[in-house]
Design goal:
8 strands; EC 1.1.1.86; branched-chain amino acid biosynthesis; eight-stranded mixed β-sheet; 2 domains; magnesium; alpha/beta; Rossmann fold; binds nicotinamide-adenine-dinucleotide; single chain; isomerase; binds magnesium ion
């Protein structure tokens, strides 16, 4: 296995960004963190955030004078798109493309719209990605603490011949080179991100937890016991795996639990589960998943809304609300 090359503070030159006006589009989870970190790194930032809504209020409270996307893009040498993925195509066509300066830099924190050709930038632009591998609020908090969330960078178009150095400089501006920066491609970032969230992190985990819970409850066990076993303890186990891999987790659990892992784990995640994982990946790679999600948005999200409602009405969610209300140390 070849080790990936990592980039740190001394590999990035912040002076490449001096004198450039950077427009951060969207003041949400990622947007507020990028805008504030770049400003604290001594760079010239403008924020675009539509008015109405809490994020506009927050931008004003944080000292910005938020403008429209079109206005910000007109002034900017660098346009960083931190809008929800599903609205980016429309905003690109209506507000960014007609206003962006020639030879500007266009950047993203996730590759979806470039990878699935929703946005097709003109060839004069540098097109790059700086994707923090953590939620926006952590990107801000760690920067303030002198730390940094690791980032991925990627270059899709290199019109200036300096695109990679520019991406590294931006990553430094938000604190990413303190944690370490890794180079990827728009395709690799997009496909692995979607696969991870669908198969393991969100899709797989939610159904695993819920199926375990329902199996115990259907067999007559108390729902509260089932909740602790199948949901609450997941965090304790994942913390051990996060800190020291499967080895640390197995060291910490009893040998009985470890034996049970070896006997039953592969009865749950079977060869046919792995076959299905390959099919999920194929749907991501072919663009089928992306097309379905964009179509779902065009038609008012009927499936998404129904599923969200169904999941919220599951027994495990109701039991959870009751039990967590007694555990004051669990963050609201
Ligand atoms: P978000 O939903 O938190 O924020 C988006 C902001 O854009 C909101 O303030 C919203 O009001 C504003 N907005 C929405 N539509 C708009 C429009 N038409 N015109 C102007 N403003 C509009 O989004 P986010 O989670 O920060 O995601 C932004 C990007 O970052 C996405 O590409 C996402 O994939 C990527 N990303 C997010 C995270 C994360 O931690 N949430 C992590 C890595 C990458
Ligand atoms: Mg959400
Ligand atoms: Mg992800
Ligand atoms: Mg994602
Ligand atoms: Mg136990
Ligand atoms: Mg042990």
């Amino acid at each position: 296995m070849k080790e990936a090359k990592m980039y740190y503070e001394s590999d990035a030159d912040l002076s490449l960004l001096k004198g450039k006006t950077i427009a951060v589009l969207g003041y949400g989870s990622q947007g507020h963190a990028h805008a504030l970190n770049l400003k604290d790194s001594g760079l010239n930032v403008i924020v675009a955030q539509r008015s109405g809504g809490d994020n506009y209020k927050k931008a004003v409270e944080d000292g910005w004078k938020p403008v429209s996307v079109a206005e910000a893009v007109k002034q900017a040498d660098w346009v960083h798109v931190l809008l929800p993925d599903e609205v980016q195509k429309k905003v690109w066509e209506e507000d960014i493309k007609p206003n962006i300066k020639k030879n500007a830099i266009l950047s993203f924190a996730h590759g979806f719209n470039i990878r699935f050709k929703q946005i097709i930038p003109t060839p004069d632009l540098d097109v790059i990605m700086i994707a923090p591998k953590g939620p926006g609020h952590l990107v801000r908090r760690q920067y303030e603490e002198g730390k940094g969330v690791p980032c991925l960078i990627a270059v899709e178009q290199n019109a200036s011949d300096k695109a990679k150095d520019l991406a590294l400089a931006y990553a430094k501006g938000i604190g990413g080179t303190r944690g370490g920066v890794l180079e990827t491609t728009f395709a690799e970032e997009t496909e692995t991100d979607l696969f991870g969230e669908q198969v393991v992190l969100c899709g797989g985990l939610v159904e695993l937890i819920n199926s375990g819970f329902e199996t115990l409850v259907a067999a007559g066990y108390q729902p509260e016991i089932a909740y602790f076993e199948c949901l609450h303890e997941v965090k304790l186990i994942v913390d051990l795996i996060f800190e020291g891999g499967f080895g640390k987790m197995n060291y910490s659990v009893s040998d009985t639990a470890e034996y049970g892992e070896y006997v039953s784990g592969k009865r749950i995640i079977t060869d046919s589960t792995k076959e299905e994982m390959k099919k999920v990946l194929a749907d991501i790679q072919s663009g089928k998943f992306a097309n379905n999600w964009l179509e779902e948005n065009r038609t008012g999200r009927p499936f998404f809304k129904k599923e969200r409602k169904d999941v919220s009405e599951r027994t495990i969610e109701k039991v959870g609300v009751r039990l967590r209300s007694k555990m004051s140390w669990i963050k609201k």
